[in-house]
């Protein structure tokens, strides 16, 4: 028996959410008295792979096939299920990010496993295998007992602090037979958004809403984000109006984020917006309306005009950095 963790990478670099999943998987393995192994698909730097050992992976299965450099959920599921069979893994863990959400259910189907998506706690194994997960867009939790022998779990990013150790993992090649016919789609080009912090990885996010009046005022958000080394996000109407790109839209119909600090500027705090951000550790709201619903969800609130408050805040942050 073992615990297998899918560690996804982008351009050879392991994602932060994958390190979190490995650390989580190592703790699950400890609970079960077994070992945690990671699997990385596509070509990645050996140092990156060995670093998975810092978070508890004893061994990393490396599937160094360049055809796997882009995530394709069908073929990824085939490879990961084959690895789980080879390693006798009864528990397979994914980060609950875009890649993990796409691949985990397919692996669960192949292994005939029970799946819990969006886990936020370690399993309670005193009476079954009970995992706590987010439900209703983060408004509530459910405790789910996985009764199937095999279990697949996807872990909500930022649910646990990373604790880096100094062990390194051994790297073992894994080469399941893959035919070209296994690859059903081909990525023809990738558009990267350069110079920005990816929202699902960002520790700090500065977000703007309709209160900013128009795209010409986004310098306010960007300047504060730059001062804090933060990513930038927005409410849905802002993206719908074309003020900002859709990949910045957070909420029920956009991205779910869980940064350490979320600064919301000129956003009312509608329930659909909160659904995507209420897992943030600290929420700061800047709004000129003292009755804005967002203040109820805020840890810190500033009642004031964003056009006056935000430049002062940015200047203060820049001064502190000097
Ligand atoms: P508004 O509601 O217009 O609020 C603007 C705020 O700015 C106000 O609180 C105002 O007091 C403040 N303000 C104005 N001027 C200033 C100033 N100078 N300084 C400081 N503050 C100022 N929304 C999302 O964000 N994400 C989603 O995923 C999402 N999904 C949805 C799904 C469904 C099915 C539906 C029905 C709605 C969804 N919405 C979503 C929309 C949501 O209901 C709200 O309409 C939206 O979040 C409001 O955006 P806003 O706060 O930017 O704008």
UniProtKB/TrEMBL annotation:
<keyword id="KW-0249">Electron transport</keyword>
<dbReference type="InterPro" id="IPR014730">
    <property type="entry name" value="ETF_a/b_N"/>
</dbReference>
<dbReference type="InterPro" id="IPR001308">
    <property type="entry name" value="ETF_a/FixB"/>
</dbReference>
<protein>
    <submittedName>
        <fullName>Electron transfer flavoprotein subunit alpha/FixB family protein</fullName>
    </submittedName>
</protein>
<comment type="similarity">
    <text>Belongs to the ETF alpha-subunit/FixB family.</text>
</comment>
<keyword id="KW-0813">Transport</keyword>
<dbReference type="InterPro" id="IPR014731">
    <property type="entry name" value="ETF_asu_C"/>
</dbReference>
<dbReference type="Pfam" id="PF01012">
    <property type="entry name" value="ETF"/>
</dbReference>
<dbReference type="Pfam" id="PF00766">
    <property type="entry name" value="ETF_alpha"/>
</dbReference>
<feature type="domain" description="Electron transfer flavoprotein alpha/beta-subunit N-terminal">
    <location>
        <begin position="3"/>
        <end position="187"/>
    </location>
</feature>
<dbReference type="InterPro" id="IPR029035">
    <property type="entry name" value="DHS-like_NAD/FAD-binding_dom"/>
</dbReference>
<dbReference type="InterPro" id="IPR014729">
    <property type="entry name" value="Rossmann-like_a/b/a_fold"/>
</dbReference>
